[in-house]
Design a protein that fits this description.
The complex is a heterodimer. Chain A has 3 helices and 3 strands. Chain A is α+β, with helices and mostly antiparallel strands. Chain B has helices at about 1-35, 75-80, 90-105, 125-130, 140-150, 165-175, 185-195, 225-235, 255-280, 305, 310-320, 340-345, 465-470, and strands at about 45-50, 70, 70-75, 85-90, 110-115, 135-140, 155-160, 180, 200-210, 220, 240-245, 285, 335, 350-360, 365-370, 385-390, 395-400, 410-420, 425-430, 450-455, 455-460. Classes of the chains: A alpha+beta, B alpha/beta. The interface of A and B includes residues 27, 54 and 55 of A.
Chain lengths: ~80, ~475
């Protein structure tokens, strides 16, 4: 389990996310799924913006704001520490 | 044969080689293509699954973009006329009027719609409805003046409201407008006018009944308490007034048809009674307004699409009851209806831009729009829908929608289903035509353009305010600047 994540998660190809710790389920969109997978793979938070911009058609400043907001969402949902 | 075979094999080999090289080239091109093209980006989003948020009645999903309004690109309209922007679909307004008029006139041929000015008294809106045949229903001297300025004949204006000045009443009676008396003080003023004009004035009496909770007792004379009968008797007793009309207005946004049926029944019984007791013959009765529009009230369980009666429902409720009144068919009083909201709400949309999005302390999302309560005062009543003006993906998130005013109370909706939008994206709020413009405040921001679209043509029907316009009547005495 990656240190980022609060518990163990299963992420499907379609973006369906299951939290083994709480039993809660979520849906991630394509970009959200990509980031979450990178977190699961152990990518460092600081590298995520770069990973997103190299994978998706998006400017860095927009990706940075969006990744920040995504992290806030994950934290508030107690998915990451 | 052998040679042929060899040639054939050679030819096949060449073809394969050629095909192979083509495939190889194609592969290289494909690889190049794959290497250079990145995936389509949408804001990373995670939505928690919850139970019970969906219902079988549904609404158009907020993810379906409303990127065109009345045949025009929403983006283009904003580029040309700014944001926020009120947009009137003229044909929809005309259709609304025609639909309501048809619903009532087919059931009560002497029905006449008098448009309730206060819901939106922009000149263009009133003109369109007058073009369609609507009379004017006004509740102040100011509104009366708007109607006259639009060349409405006084005799096609109904003057209601609890406060009318003597000068306004004098003008109304001189121009043969229909005046419905709200209280005894007003009755007395009208008696004075009758005296001054040296004539007996025809008047209507506004009555109220115990129909709703809380009851609408502010306007007119109460039926159950006997005040309505006293008022008619009192008016006749002066010898200066002749009662020819009865008026009732059952409330606002009334989607409970039983309220209208009870009101209509009350009108019939009251007419029968004053006819028997006082010999009154009505020239008109007026069922007022209050007809609902397709906007969901903040406290409603079900969306308005499920609860809002049609014009036919209203007409079918009211007209057959009134036709049982104490009169021969050919002597039926004229029936006035005073819709406002029901006519003008739906034909108007507001295009607004996202100014900011933020993550709230509870993990929820907030967005700030460039339109606030200053131009959308009906958020006090309505849970407006927010449709995207562009493709914003399919991920809907529960969102608090804030107006752009620097005021904590400027919340347009506590919880709305909004797709992923970012600064500069457009949202369309449908059904905003009633009250929002006439009740708008010039506060913090200047009020925006209002456009009307008909037959593809865009007309600016109210220009956006300027600082000069807002300050036009202000004065700074010299002593304040020395």
């Amino acid at each position: 389990m990656d240190s980022f994540l609060h518990s163990e998660f299963t992420l499907s190809e379609s973006g369906f996310l299951f939290d083994h710790g709480t039993g809660l389920t979520y849906t991630l969109n394509e970009t959200g799924r990509f980031i979450f997978q990178k977190i699961q793979d152990g990518s460092h938070a600081n590298n995520l913006v770069e990973l997103v911009t190299s994978e998706f058609e998006v400017a860095e400043d927009i990706a940075r704001k969006d990744v920040d907001d995504f992290f806030r969402q994950l934290k508030e949902a107690r998915i990451i520490h | 044969m052998v040679v042929f075979n060899v040639l054939s094999v050679h030819s096949m080999f060449s073809q394969l080689l050629f095909a192979g090289s083509s495939l190889l080239n194609l592969k290289i091109r494909t690889d190049d293509y794959t290497m250079t093209e990145k995936r389509h980006y949408s804001k990373p989003t995670i939505i928690r699954h919850t139970v019970g948020v969906m219902n079988k009645y549904g609404r158009p999903p907020a993810t379906v973009p409303m990127n065109r309004l009345v045949g025009h690109e929403v983006k283009e309209l904003v580029e040309n006329y700014g944001s926020p922007l009120f947009v009137l679909n003229v044909q929809e307004l005309r259709d609304n009027y025609r639909d309501m008029s048809r619903a009532f006139m087919t059931r009560y041929p002497k029905a006449q719609i008098a448009y309730s000015y206060k819901t939106n008294y922009m000149k263009a809106v009133c003109s369109i409805l007058h073009q369609e045949g609507a009379w004017a229903e006004v509740v102040s001297g100011f509104e009366y003046d708007i109607a006259r300025n639009l060349n409405m004949a006084g005799e096609n204006i109904i003057f209601n409201g609890p406060y009318k000045t003597k000068a306004e009443l004098m003008r109304a009676f001189s121009e043969k407008a229909l005046v419905n008396i709200d209280n005894y003080d007003e009755m007395q003023v009208i008696e004075d006018i009758a005296e001054e004009l040296g004539t007996v004035l025809e008047v209507g009496i506004r009555i109220n009944m115990d129909l709703n909770s809380p009851p609408w007792h502010k306007f007119g004379f109460n039926l159950e308490a006997g005040h309505a009968f006293e008022a008619v008797k009192r008016a006749l007793a002066s010898g200066k007034l002749k009662v020819v009309g009865l008026h009732i207005h059952v409330g606002t946004y009334i989607d409970d048809l039983t309220i209208y049926s009870r009101a209509a029944q009350g009108m019939v019984e009251f007419y029968r009674y004053i006819k028997e007791q006082l010999g009154v013959t009505l020239k008109y009765w007026d069922m007022g307004g209050g007809y609902a529009s397709h906007n969901t009230l903040n406290w409603a369980w079900l969306p308005a699409e499920q609860t809002c009666p049609t014009y036919d429902h209203y007409a079918e409720t009211i007209c057959p009851i009134l036709l049982n009144g104490p009169f021969a068919a050919e002597d039926a009083p004229k029936l006035f209806l005073e819709p406002g909201r029901a006519l003008v709400d739906e034909p108007f949309s507001l295009i607004t831009s996202v100014a900011a999005q933020k993550r709230m302390p509870n993990g929820g999302r907030g967005i700030v729009l460039d339109a606030g309560m200053n131009i959308l005062s009906s958020v006090q009543w309505y849970s407006y829908n927010f449709q995207t003006g562009q493709d914003s993906g399919s991920m809907i998130e529960d969102t608090t929608v804030y107006g752009g005013l620097c005021m904590n109370i400027d919340v347009l909706r506590e919880s709305a289903s909004v797709p992923q939008v970012r600064r500069g994206d457009l949202l369309v709020i449908p059904h905003v035509g009633a009250y929002n413009i006439s009740q708008s405040w010039q506060f913090i921001y200047l009020r925006p353009n209002v456009i009307a679209i008909e037959d593809g043509e865009v007309h600016v029907i109210k220009k956006a305010e300027t600082r000069e316009y807002v300050q036009e009547f202000e004065q700074v005495p010299d002593t304040f600047t020395k």
